[in-house]
Amino acid sequence: MRIALIGYGKMGKIIEEIAQQRGHEIVCRIDIDNQECFDSEEFCSADVAIEFTQPAVAIHNYRKCFQKHIPVVAGTTGWLEYMAEIKEACEKEGQTFFYASNYSLGVNIFFAVNKYLATIMDQFSSYDVSMEEVHHIHKLDSPSGTAITLAEDIVNNLRRKKTWKEDENVSEEEIKVTSFRRNEVPGFHAVTYDSEVDTITISHNAKSRRGFALGAVIAAEFTCGKKGFLGMKDMLKF
Predict the structure, then answer these.
(1) Catalytic residue among 24, 64, 139, 204
(2) How many CB atoms lie within 10 A of CB 59?
(3) Annotated catalytic, 135?
(4) Which residue in 24, 135, 176, 204 is the catalytic one?
(5) What is the rounded distance in angstroms from the CA atom of residue 196 to the CA atom of residue 115?
(6) Which tens digits make up the pLDDT trace of 19-61?
(7) How many Å apart are CA 154 and CA 152, to the nearest integer?
């Protein structure tokens, strides 16, 4: 498989290493200082592009890929106000786009556990739910895309909660989400149900960026040759 990397920072370099170990070819590396490469023959020859950049430039990068009809595996979060545009391009223009708020296999198992726990806790109103997430100081969006996915899955399965809020002061119908930016933490997420008699907490703690990078490469392998809007549910089937 021929891969174009969009974003060649720490994640991009780990993705490159893993992709090459799995027998793939990196045909193009695009970063902030060589944007002209979106028009290069090398970029146009890619079977798929893997994008890990920043929220402010992500949608620009996706549009550039769509202009060349190159499938995208999107690893950037914090741009979701443009999601309707992306889905419309997949539906009406035949574009291919794979999105996950987190590419770690462990996190996606955590998503499934979180949803299941919320359906159980829907029966026990004495428990209030809150969330915490911690990431490295370079992460610009807050809360993380993973935290938003967790919170929205709780809202969809716990009828006493209507929305989430990143604030100290929340109502009974809101989930309190607390975000921290510390050192080089790859990613930590915890969901806590608290009552007068006990506390239940589930959490996921990433040890390095390699889990995210491996998941992105596997997603690229899955995406190659397909059409439409895709996600982890399509790939993992749970």
Answers:
(1) 139
(2) 18
(3) yes
(4) 135
(5) 23
(6) 999 999 999 999 999 999 999 999 999 999 999 999 999 999 9
(7) 5
To the query of whether residue 139 is one of the catalytic residues in this protein, the response is yes
Phi, psi of 12 (to 5 degrees): -60, -40
Q: What is the pLDDT of residues 126-151, one digit of tens each?
A: 999 999 999 999 888 899 999 999 99
Going from the C-alpha of 126 to that of each of 130, 182, 190, the distances in angstroms are 13, 33, 19
